[in-house]
Amino acid sequence: DGQLKTGRDVAVACLLGAEEFGFATAPLVASGCIMMRVCHLNTCPVGIATQNPELRKKFEGKPEHVVNFMYFIAEELRSIMAQLGFRTINEMVGQVHKINTRKAISHFKAKGLNLSPILKKIDTPDGVAVYNTQKQEHHLEDAIDFKIISQAHLALFRKEKMVLDYPIHNTDRAVGAILSNEISKIYGAQGLPDNTLKINFKGSAGQSFAAFATRGLTLKIEGNTNDYLAKGLSGARVIIKVPDETTFKPEDNIIIGNVALYGAIDGEVYINGVAGERFCVRNSGAKAVVEGIGDHGCEYMTGGVAVVLGKTGRNFAAGMSGGVAYVFNPDGKFTDKCNLESVALEEIIEVEDQLQLKELIENHYNFTNSPLAYRILEQWENSLKHFAKVMPFEYKKALERIKKESLETAISQ
Fold this sequence. Notes:
Elements: H1 7-15, H2 25-30, H3 53-56, H4 63-84, H5 89-92, H6 102-105, H7 144-151, H8 153-158, E1 162-168, H9 177-187, E2 197-205, E3 217-225, E4 234-241, E5 266-271, E6 284-290, E7 302-308, E8 322-328, H10 334-337, E9 343-346, H11 351-368, H12 371-378, H13 380-384, E10 387-392, H14 393-412
Parallel strand pairs: 1-2, 2-3, 3-4, 4-5, 5-6, 6-7, 7-8
Antiparallel strand pairs: 8-10, 9-10
């Protein structure tokens, strides 16, 4: 958030050279936010930053409120443009000579500050504009997804199982997103039956691989991926594994980037190696197995399951309000890495938890041939003792309440 709140803010940004203006906090307030600063606790009293259905009923914001706010911004900006003698935004971009800095510099906090180096007007040849005149070419028509769609008609339209193979490069971004959109247009949120279309890739995928990937897809990579793997995952199965001929230990090497499963709502992810920072940030329903992670794992997580078979970075589970994490902790050092403000560390006593954890690790081994998963499963009874269950306080209370209500309903019937 750049803290743009008024038309004057937009005018100053434009004179400094900006052509796009992002608003965040101010429209949020226009929607009803009262700045309680509990966005990470799932207790938003006006129903904006919460998954709680009772609290969400309190949300009274309307799109018209934000539209009306932006009209006021535009009206003030138009007034300033008229004062400065500009008819259009394009005329205004980069005209830093219209900014009077004397009043700001005369303030005691800015005494002696020289802003001239960053306020120098760019020398441009005659006829050359200082604003953007040429659209960026994204080459979207060259995306792998269109090739997949053209070759996967049997799967997409007849629900017949298919397997396709492609090379992949780090210039291939958001692979699976356009394909998932095509599936969603036909079948909606239901998607395709499980594993209808399996796509094997070899190479290094670009950012946002498997973003918003929907049900019925299995996306597998022999290689590695960059940041934002499986963000917004919506039901697909994603497998990232090292090539079969690899000689190094997968559990000691990074195979995916930062911020994996950001905002994922459903699906499964199996990662045969170490992930970067902010793994499973804001995960709200997907299941994931990984062999090690960086800092801030499971940050702001509200649902789903995360299994970490290796080391974690610091600040694990910060702001975590839902879902469950299982962390393999044979050296006992995980306690120092976990942020215990909103979660508790428990032993895995419930049979249901044990079965869920074992099933996920077995899946991980079956999909990736992970040596680490094999070793853990080979000595399962002993390995189980070294797992810590990370359980958010409020989530546990909610589950207990639901269980109690279900029991009371069953008894009354």
